Amino acid sequence: MATRIGIMGGTFDPIHYGHLVTAEEARHDFQLDLVLFVPSGQPPHKTDRRITPPKHRYLMTVLATLTNPHFAVSRVDIDRPGPSYTIDTIELLRQQYGPDEEYFFISGADAILELLTWKEPERLLGMCEFIAATRPGFPLNQLTETVSELGDQYGARVHVLTVPALAISSTDVRQRVASGRPIRYLVPETVLYYIEKNRLYRPGAPAQADEPESEAAEAAPSVLSEVGPSDLP
Known about the structure:
By secondary structure, the protein is α/β, with parallel strands linked by helices.
């Protein structure tokens, strides 16, 4: 029987409970065996602001997901040069896990509405199924039309998933840190610890030169060892 693999790409700058709840709802509702979180290397759609170095976003994602045996974090995007296009990510993961497995790309409903503007959308639609995550109260008319159009014209398999209302965004988390407001209960305790330890998102903080990604990978065990049981969510 094929393994059902969910793929949740994103900048994760930082990862927060909204991401985690969405992934767990998708895992449960679609009977996924595994949900892979894939931090983007160079997000092609976010050129208007400075992105936190990949090493920090990767390690925060590892810390946020380590207590869920159905979650894993992939370095497939941050270990390769160039923009992180979804179709390239899917191709690399299919090479890694096998072309015969079942893949489900989890994304926000707003992004799904723009799916035909992504790189090579027609080929992408044939490579995996899509899960469009919405919040309660999200206007479904346009989404329903788009899902129907993608299915009729391209044979796409797009599913709508309503997740609990969590008004959390990475932008809000960054802004709260910058203004000195609390972010506890918006992000896992391990991520809060990491942000404070590395002084991320604070105004006037010295820019940190990004270390080679091989060094960031080697740093993961030492970072995890610094987080004791009392720090875990």
